[in-house]
Amino acid sequence: MIKLSEKSRRVLRAIYRGLGVTAVSFVFQACYGVPLDEGDEVFIYGSVKSQKTNAPIPGIKVSVADSDYHDFTDNNGAFSIFLLMQDRYTVTFEDVDGPGNGGLFKPYTANIPRIKFGTNSAKLTVNLTVDMEEDTEE
Asked: In the chain, helix, strand, coil percent, each to 5?
């Protein structure tokens, strides 16, 4: 058996401790992956209501042009979409279920330009309230 001095033992313990932490970190990363930060983000949310009755409209499809993201308004007319930052957003509101949500509503499009904000900020929140007009044409 090799006799080590106290100083050598402390150095070896520090090396083993460092290797242990590195191994745990590696296993954690291998299991769960590294969080992706794809860049600046925007959170668009809001509500949709009838222009005539001021009541919330459920079942309205809310989609963003040039993306695969969309949402449907809930029973309170609320929606939310989380996207990567773009120069502008074209958000379309469509009544896809017909009279099932209390009436027929005309499509509505909102154009949202990119709002310039500080370089330290990575997230932007946009709150929209949309009043949809009933479609009287059949």
From this structure: 20, 40, 40
